[in-house]
Amino acid sequence: MAASIKQFFKDFDALFFPNICQACGGSLVQHENSFCTICLHQLPYTNYHLIPDNKLAKQFWGRIKIQSAAAFLYFNKAGKVQNIMHQLKYNNQPKVGVELGKLYGKELVKEIHYTQIDGIIPVPLHPKKFKKRGYNQSEQFANGLSETLKIPVFSDILIRDLEKESQTGKSRSLRFDNMEAVFKVQSNHPKLNNVLLVDDTITTGATLETCAAVLQNSGIENINILGLAFTE
After folding, report:
1. Are 68 and 52 spatial neighbours (Cβ–Cβ below 8 Å)?
2. Residues of the chain with CATH 3.40.50.2020
3. Which Pfam families does the UniProt record give (predicted)?
């Protein structure tokens, strides 16, 4: 009887407060979490973790030395991935980042390269943005990766202590110098040699390039870059 009552209230909640797919907006059925089965099959996966010289990795060639670069999904405007990123960043859905991190981690753990990582470092938000949003979406993605890869997340190594100035009209070198002033590494951080630098959406890679350089200057030699979504 107790089980029947519990199921009744569960069904009642589902009727008025349905769990919806964060990609398409459809209702989820039992055992689906954040995404419906159809969307999970239809999302634009890059499979870049299987292609060392993928298009994202090539963006960093000649700019900075990294071990690898990959992203989970392709970002397309007006598509399902844009819906997902909107939910994650602007609709108070941090669990979306965690769930996608867990899903990607299940793929990465099959590759020995990703099992040799010492730690996961998310690109930080400025404190003002963190206060407004309540969480760092890149850190949520990192937490999901950590859960399946069994690699710790270090959210306090890389910090962002200034509002990024407008980059409009600046040369690439000036933009890089400006970004270097934004990111700092905490002193006395744990000794790490091989890390996964994680961001939510990668477009030009300028932010990640700067973060990687700052980390390398602090003594962390081997940087692997990972994004939730990549804009071609």
Report:
1. yes
2. 44-230
3. Pribosyltran
